[in-house]
Amino acid sequence: MKNFVLVCVGVILLLAIPIVAGCAPAEPSVPPIVIGAPCSQNNVAKNMSMAAQLAAEEINAREGSILIDGLKRPLKIVTIDIRDLEPGVPIQDVVLAYKNLIGKEKPVALVAGPIRTEAQLAVMENIAGDKIVNIFCGGVNSKFKATFKTDPEKYKYLFKNSPTEIDLVIGLMKAMAEVKDKLGYNTVYLLIEDVDFAKAGATAAAIMLETAGWTVKGQENTPLGMTDYSQVLLKFKNSGAQVGFYIYSSEAAPLAKQYQAMQIPALMVGVCDPLGGPGAWNATQGAVKGWINYICGAGNMPVSKMPKSVAFTDAYQKKFGEPPQIVLGCSQSYDAVYILAEAMKKTGSLDPDRLTKAIEEMQYDGVVGHTKFPAIDHQAPYVDDPATGLVAPVFQWWDSKRVPVLPASIADAAIQSVK
Predict the structure, then answer these.
(1) Sequence-ordered list of residues with C-beta below 8 angstroms from that of 68, at least 6 positions apart, any chain
(2) Are residues 143 and 242 in the same domain?
(3) What is the pTM of this model?
(4) CATH classification at residue 271
């Protein structure tokens, strides 16, 4: 019996050997490279963090990881709801959301960001000392670069690849010039949302319109979140203006239906998220027909003459089931993740100073066009040619489709009358 027991033990030990030998020790978990994509999550602004996620997944799928200090690490996108586009949300709440994300997730860089100028400037001021590379993708303002120039050393980790209100107004002025030259219109009424970027744009626009020979029949500033535009539109209609020039953010969807119901014969030219996104035609039952809208960067709508913008919107739709709904910041957030990844690969480091220098030296051809960040202000320039800078298309609604009409380098058609 003793010998039998010994034999059995020996057999058990022999059988156990390959099992033990086949169990290699578990690989230690590789910490991801965390990139924050804070933005408002209860409206179309969430498209920015979604685009950042798409970019990170593509980079991880193609390259597996990025070599940082000898260790291959994947990208990870984290977000938080900053609520900057919700009426009545205090600016300090936006800043607090940023601080919470930074404290909890420890991101090495940030993309996306606030769309409201007031919120972006407050964030700028409060995170400058955190030494985190941040590419703002959403705010339409020139106050970023003006603030940057006051203290480049303080703000050196901050960049911006969304347009300024001057870029927006210049784009719309080119549309207005086409309307004046081709259609013969010369009277205009301004419909402006009572927020910083819109009021700044309207001030510049009024001067430029009058200089260009337009007669400004009036201006109405409406509060954020307004739903009944009937009184404003009545003043517009009674003015007899041939063109309505509008600048709104995310709360002006009822404007088009009320404009149609009141049978206003004027052509509409301007910018507004819910009236410029791909769902606007169905949402307004075609009330936006003929409206001309500025898109704050190619890729927020596909442009046939910019193939990367088409590839991006196709990939975005495949992943999320619909194309980008926002007209601002989505394609910029996507490009921003790629720019950060390129800087990380070039330096092999997450050091903010090395990343900042690499981004300043970078020339990146992406979805929005050719990105470069001048050292003097870190504001990526917007131009007419995607080979030399970033491009913001102007389109017109016809037959449920958004047709690019400006700039000429990317246009598919000319502006037409609504009559």
Answers:
(1) 33, 344, 348, 349, 350
(2) no
(3) 0.88
(4) 3.40.50.2300
Q: Reduce the DSSP state of residue 270 to 3 states and report it.
A: strand
Q: How many domains does the chain have?
A: 2
- Sequence-ordered list of residues with C-beta below 8 angstroms from that of 79, at least 6 positions apart, any chain: 36, 37, 38, 39, 41, 49, 52, 101, 112
Say yes or no: 249 and 310 in one domain. Answer: no
Strand ranges in 176-302 using DSSP code E only, listed in sequence order: 187-193, 215-222, 243-247, 267-271, 292-294
| 3-class secondary structure per residue, 13-49 | HHHHHHHHHCCCCCCCCCCCEEEECCECCCCHHHHHH
CA 55/CA 369 separation, integer angstroms? 16
For 28-80, the pLDDT digits (tens) are 578 999 999 999 999 899 999 999 999 999 999 998 889 998 899 999 999 99
Helix (H) or strand (E) holding 401: strand 401-406
Pair (189, 155) in one structural domain: no
3-state secondary structure of 145: helix
pLDDT tens digits, 255-306: 999 999 999 999 999 998 889 999 999 999 999 999 999 999 999 999 999 9
Per-residue pLDDT for 19 more than 80? Answer: no
**403 SS3 class:** strand
3-class DSSP assignment, residue 76: strand
d(C-alpha 160, C-alpha 170), whole Å: 18
Verify that 151 and 72 share a domain, yes or no.
yes
Same domain, 201 and 343: no
- Which residue range forms the structural domain that includes residue 203? 166-295+393-406
CA 215 centroid distance within chain: 33
Same domain, 56 and 143: yes
What is the token pair recorded at 379? Answer: 């504001």
DSSP letter string, 112-126: S--SSHHHHHHHHHH
Paired strand residues for 246: 191, 270
Which residues, in sequence order, are bridge partners of residue 379? 160
Residue 95 and residue 108: Cα distance in Å, rounded?
18
Q: Is 66 within 8 Å of 75 (Cβ atoms)?
A: yes
312 lies in some domain: yes
Terminal CA-CA length for the chain: 106
Residue 164 Cα distances to 130, 143, 168, 397, angstroms: 25, 8, 6, 24
Give a yes or no: residue 278 inside a domain: yes
